[in-house]
Amino acid sequence: MLKTKIEVKDFNFFYGDQHALKDVNLNICKNKVLGIIGPSGCGKSTFLRNINRMNDTIAGTRASGTMLIDGQNIFAENMDVVELRRRVGMVFQKSNPFPKSIFDNVAYGLRVNGRKDKEYVEHKVEESLKGAALWEEVKDRLQASAFDLSGGQQQRLCIARALAIEPEVLLMDEPASALDPTATAKIEELIQELKKKYTIVIVTHNMQQAARISDYTAFFMLGELVEYNETQKIFTNPEKEITEEYITGRFG
Amino acid sequence: MKIKEKLIHGLFLFNGLLVVFILIGIFSLLVFTAIPAFKEINIKEFLFSSNWNPTSYVKETYGIGAMLVSTIMVTAGALLLAVPIGIGAAAYLSDVASPKIREIVKPIIEILAGIPSVVIGFLGIVFVGPVISKTFGLPNGLNAVNGSILLGVMALPTIISLSEDALSSVSKTYSDASLALGATRWQTVIKVKIPAALSGVIAACMLGMGRAIGETMTVLMATGCAPAMPRSYLDSVRTMTSTIAIELGEVPYYTTHYYALFAVGLVLFIMTFCVNMTSDIILHKYQGKRV
Lengths: 252, 291
Prior knowledge:
A: alpha/beta; 4-stranded antiparallel β-sheet; 27% strand; B: mainly alpha; 76% helix
């Protein structure tokens, strides 16, 4: 019943000499939310940024092992990275709208992908902003600068921007870490809505957040995947002691 | 100790004041020597007439229209060449070139700024000129295009170096966001990085332009120096700077001609001042935005 969207086998990743991810194995299920938790520097963001090969922008990195999306190797020679990133959208830790209008921010992904038809773009911008639960707040000022929005609104704008190109997978790197509780609640609510259409992988520092929103949880430490299971099991009855110590807040 | 501090303080204060004093001195010399020219010359005629004939036996005329147009033509031509090439090279250096190539190429480009203008003018006469005359079938290649090409080359280092600085300082979060949306590197540079760095890039172009307007030796050598209203880029032109350089050495002191040349200098000064001022304002606005 559960379909695998992304399959990771013996995956290793290096920043120069530093071994950042060690023999990671896990399957990410379609239309589910995978939460990745772990102490700072454990490799969770690195893992996330490999799924759309954003680590390519950092010089001196190297990957080995396989990572498959729908059976296709993400790290294959013939993988078109631009095409991959269209399929795998990303929301960053710090909201990073372009210094452009709200409309142009959302339309950007469409335009660079060659969709210039005005009616289609307008329709898609509206749909994406609605999808990110931002439409009602900005529909009267689409031409205003994205910087006029509050932090929470900016982050939802970034989500709308990612949704506009209809990705299959949505990667979120601590999307709520810089937001206040109200804005965080809105984003979390949104994630529940989004998983109906997308496969979501979210990195979070916040244990309660992982427990609330994810279906599966992966616990990383020092570059290794320590434990991976259904969220409920991880949080109520973890197999390893160290997992329990971390989620109960004894370190990290 | 205290006395030493005071001495050092005094020394720096003296140096600072000296520079300001010299600049004010030059400016007032320019203004006060230019003013007497307008006792005999109508300002309107001075600015808009294109008849510059200060040594006529019949009637001396002092119209800088032709030189003004020539200066603007040569400068505009230079920018037309240097801005696209400069920004393209800056984009290449900041986003495409590997760090190793950037480390080698950028200093080389900056060294290009140190080539003496007379050497560039020399190249204009022996190399660019013949190419132009062959291409367009002209008797000689000393004209506005030649000047534009040379000034463009001279403005390039400034434009490339400063634009590259502006592009490199655009936050990585913008380019990451763009790449993550499936934009190519090229699209990211054109649609996100250049717009985000626009004020820095414009300031770089303005500074390049400031250099082109004031340049004398190169245009003197390469543009043919015909003091008439140019009809096309293939005409010989004589810019304001060339006119001053040619005539000031031979003019009798304290004559209308002498004063008129200072007035030309004043107009030139006002032009470069405006350009530099504008670029400074743009640059400040840009620095203020990126705190």
